[in-house]
């Protein structure tokens, strides 16, 4: 049974959502009080693929839940012990797990979206865009005959690493060896960074799912190329999806350091997207075709 803690407007439960090969992945589920069903977000923490856990987004998740949104903040496996694509598979499974348990947590299974912070943005988008990629579906879910997939109704990234190859090269040029080593620990090489870059996936013309998207970024973020969010929104729209980049002047990488005005604006935009009745999973799923050839530069 999950461990629960009640607040004035939300309830927080801690659960084990995945057990595999002796490893356990836990999640914190933030639920608004009320009958529901509520929209929901699978929340993926940052940490440059090598650190972080379900507690990293605790304060943020509580504020989002107070907007009438269920938030499932998850652990993912970490590099170097678990390199790409291990943590993407964890996000994919968590999405299916939440849909399967939607009744227990008063979630509308057709309005499950995702929220990724920093490196978690890359993990979230890969799982959402390539939701039926066999590499990301290695964790089987015993769903009692239900057909569940990891499609998301909407996606949100905050300071998202939407092009890990560009971020890696930026870190090399600035001699930021901490970031360089984190990239190498997770991806191994530049070819893998290129293959798993959400932005370059779209620029290559790969057919993917394109749920409605919001990409938030700080204009003064020292860890990302300045045009990351805008380039992603442009590529998303060029591929046929709906997307918007929101860039906050003077804001850095950590959303916790953003101006209160900007943070409040972000929360309102997240709430609006999640509660919009138009944002439901399409009845016509996209069939993703993965090229097994080496990716070519855009």
TrEMBL record:
Residues 29-234 form the BD-FAE-like domain. One of its GO terms (molecular function) is hydrolase activity. Gene3D superfamilies: alpha/beta hydrolase (3.40.50.1820). This is Carboxylesterase Est2 domain protein. It comes from the Bacteria. Keywords: Hydrolase.
